[in-house]
Amino acid sequence: MGDHQNGPSRSAHSGTDLNTLIKSSPEMFLGNRVLQNFKDAQLPFLFKVLSFDKALPLQSHPDRALGQKLMEQEKKQSWLGRNETFVDPNHKPEVAVVLSERFLGFVGFRPVEEIQQFVRDVAELREAIGEDSARKFVDLEAEEAEKRLKETFGKVFDGEERKASGLVDSFMRRVKNDGNNAFGKERAWKERYLAEVALKLYNQYPGDIGLFGALIFTNLVVLERGEGIAIPPNVIHAYVEGDVIEVFVPCTNISE
């Protein structure tokens, strides 16, 4: 429910879209407080009910400055002179409240020390990154490893596709046999649902090297009905399982 140009809600009585209604009488539909806080005569959120049993791809929403920059770049590069991917300059912090019995998702990068442990203990991951690069990453102090995280994450996806798929297949055979222990015994007891989620993702995206990116590098979040999570701009995330009420909040501070 919202007034976004790509899919505005419509009045059940007249069929008029919400954007037109708001523009016709901003104070009546938004109130003075919203107009004073947000300046623009538009609804300052987009409300959704999401239900999914197939994992969404890893993604992150840009902040306002980057969103504006991406819009301008795409419009300049488009032979049609218009935006198709980046149609909105607003940043889109998300708030999601769980409706189902359980919610599973990946949110944000793990603490770098945890990622180093996974790289050390998962042979297929080391091969995907490159043994030399993996060894150097594992041996770094936490602060320096944090600086190399983006580079190491990128190396997972740099390899030849057939080889990468084979590494994922090899790793998943071990997950089927050893459960969480396939991720390294040091982490196994802390990662209650990791093997379960790995198998779920593998069934949906067999051989996809992105499994390493999600399972190893990002936090697996498990929530129950009534619990919620806030995801600021520029934070990598992907929903895996569950039903949620989600609100995009294009405001300056997510706490607003």
Descriptive account of the structure:
Among the domains are: 1-44, no CATH class; 106-222, Phosphomannose Isomerase, domain 2 (Orthogonal Bundle), CATH 1.10.441. It is elongated. The protein starts with 17 loop residues before the first helix and ends in an 8-residue tail after the last strand. It contains 12 helices and 6 strands. Residues 251-256 have low confidence and may be disordered. With 256 residues, the protein is α+β, with helices and mostly antiparallel strands. It has helices at residues 18-24, 26-30, 32-38, 64-77, 112-121, 123-129, 131-139, 142-155, 161-178, 185-188, 194-204, 210-217; strands at residues 46-52, 94-98, 102-109, 218-224, 228-231, 237-248. 23% of the residues are buried. Helix content is 45%, strand content 17%. Strands 1, 2, 3, 4, 5 and 6 form a 6-stranded antiparallel beta sheet that branches.
Instruction: Characterize the biggest β-sheet.
Output: 6 strands, antiparallel
User: Which range best describes the helical content: under 10%, 10-25%, 25-40%, 40-55%, 55-70% or over 70%?
Assistant: 40-55%
> Helix count, per DSSP?
12
CATH A-level architecture of the domain at 106-222 = Orthogonal Bundle
Tell me the strand percentage band.
15-25%
At the first level of CATH, the class of the domain at 106-222 is Mainly Alpha
CATH topology of the domain at 106-222: Phosphomannose Isomerase, domain 2
The helix/strand order is HHHEHEEHHHHHHHHEEE
Mean pLDDT: 86
Write out the CATH superfamily name of the domain at 106-222. Phosphomannose Isomerase, domain 2
Low-confidence regions: 251-256
Specify the overall morphology. Answer: elongated
Termini Cα gap: 19 Å
Class based on secondary structure composition and strand pairing: alpha+beta
Q: How many β-strand runs?
A: 6
Gyration radius from CA atoms, angstroms: 22 Å
